[in-house]
Amino acid sequence: MKIILITSRVPYTLEKGDKLRIYHHLKELSKNNEIHLFAFDFEKKGDKNLESLQKICKTITIIKHSNIKKYFNVIIAFFKGLPLQVGFFYSNKTKKLFLKKISEIQPDHIYTHLIRTSEYVKNVNISKTLDLADAISLNLQRSSKKVSFFKKIIYEIEAKRAKKYENYIFDKFDNKLLVSESDRKFIPHENRNEIFIIPMGVNFNQFQPKISVKDIDILFSGNMKYFPNIDGALFLIEEILPLLLLKKKDIKIMIAGTNPPNKIMKYASNNIIVTGWVKDIAECYNRAKISVAPMRVGTGLQNKILEAMAMKLPCITTELSNRSLNAENNQEIIIANDKNEIADAVLNLLNNNELYEKIANNAYAFVRKNFIWEEIGKYLNEIIQNTKKK
Q: 2-200+373-385 has which fold?
């Protein structure tokens, strides 16, 4: 089968969750299909990373918009009532390019990643899959409660538009995908139960437990440009760490991930390591004793937790994050929701070796059973192969 796949980022390098997801979908689908990739490159890194993608794609088309064009399209989207992120990625010129390439390639199926790219092919008469990934309207709504007054207004407007658009675009695609069951109930369409659940996975070749010196007590990892991660890291540093220091003066925290903002960088000290981008994030997990993901906003499934579990690190997270993961509390994960609960859970794990080993081993078995990219890819391929055109 010939498949055109459209994504809003060049899916390499794999420092962000959406890149990780789409790269592994590409990789697995390429085993049984001919893949033609269309990727927007606003980060201006695409040409450096094409070699890895060329191994799994028949053709690759990189799309670049000028800054003037991007923001002009956002203004148009605003007056049309569309989500601003849809406008940011849309242009009539690019749509003509898509339609021309579709005519040349004659695909059997079109796969679009996120609502950002769905506008280009919504009316194309070819079977289509839309990977919503998570409920973006819910993510924006939750984030709006944690940002400044001006950003709050923008987030609330965008959340309402995204919710309306999620309902509108639903019927334009034959298949809809989400990362978790917990996100599905927030999609506004009455037929949301038709959505297929395609979870995140783990690259077990990269993330595997190793015997090593553990010189970091707590690891928080993730794309540090992503607001829910910024909020979670600051919660750990500003509210949880002071409680830990009362009991353990030499405790060390590592904040690992690309593009940390100054509001996090300024906390670098003897107790706090802020790495920025790292070549192999698995090495950070390898140095850590515990993974803590004190997420207060956001949606979807946290890669940081899956990866830590694969490295046999006990994980502490909030009920909000575990809704998508559905791990068993006090068996496969530790759920703690406020700063006192999280601090107590950290100290308990550090001081209770029996509990530490139980959570670590159960977590490892849990993730090995449920989050294997190869199995996820087989299911995704089956969905696409069996698509019935509406």
A: Rossmann fold (3.40.50)
